[in-house]
Write a structure and sequence with these properties.
By secondary structure, the protein is α+β, with helices and mostly antiparallel strands. Helices cover about 25% and strands about 40% of the residues. The chain has an 8-stranded antiparallel β-sheet, covered by helices on one side. The N and C termini lie far apart (about 50 Å).
Length: about 180
């Protein structure tokens, strides 16, 4: 199982674009990093981070609709999703909690995203925005540590791919005028 996981990780890492990569794996966790150039002002990109319904992929939500996602970009603020219910009593799921917020520059969340919620892990998602060229460079770093039943080497490339997809969605939304 361990050798297969390493082969899957190696294949995914080679197929990943240069701006997205698994930067570390071990028996107790992993780290990923993705970055993208966005032709927009830092304030506009930061404001958009607080509107995940405009850029998060529907296929990576519990409800199937990113319009149900909410992010309050202040320390203690919640990144959550409303789960509609035909009975009229909606549910919800917390994706993360804001632990550091510097408008127009950086947003950090404590977050065990998606299926990692059912694992014994802690995760930190850090998004930095820096001026670059005719816009900004947004870098998303995710560090996860703890017990992962499938193994970090198996899960890391999958998580990297999903987070890169979200970052590309942020770029599309920010550059759509």
């Amino acid at each position: 199982m361990r050798i297969i996981g390493l082969l899957l990780w190696a294949g995914a890492a080679m197929a990943a674009p240069a701006h997205s990569a698994v930067t570390a794996t071990s028996d107790i966790g992993f780290a990923t990093q993705s970055s993208v150039e966005i032709a927009a002002e830092p304030g506009a990109v930061y404001a958009l981070l607080a509107m995940p319904g405009r850029w998060w992929s529907d296929s990576h939500t519990y409800s199937g609709d990113s319009a149900n996602m909410v992010l309050d970009p202040r320390a203690g603020g919640c990144f959550y999703e409303v789960l509609p219910n035909p009975s009229g009593k909606p549910g919800s799921v917390e994706h993360g909690r804001v632990i550091y917020a510097v408008p127009d520059k950086q947003l950090r969340l404590s977050a065990a995203l998606g299926p990692l919620q059912s694992e014994g892990v802690a995760g930190t998602l850090d998004v930095t925005i820096k001026p670059s060229g005719k816009g900004v460079r947004v870098t998303m770093t995710y560090v996860v540590g703890g017990y992962l039943r499938a193994g970090a080497a198996v899960l890391a490339p999958l998580v990297d791919q999903v987070l890169n997809e979200q970052l590309q969605g942020l770029k599309r939304a920010a550059e759509a005028h």
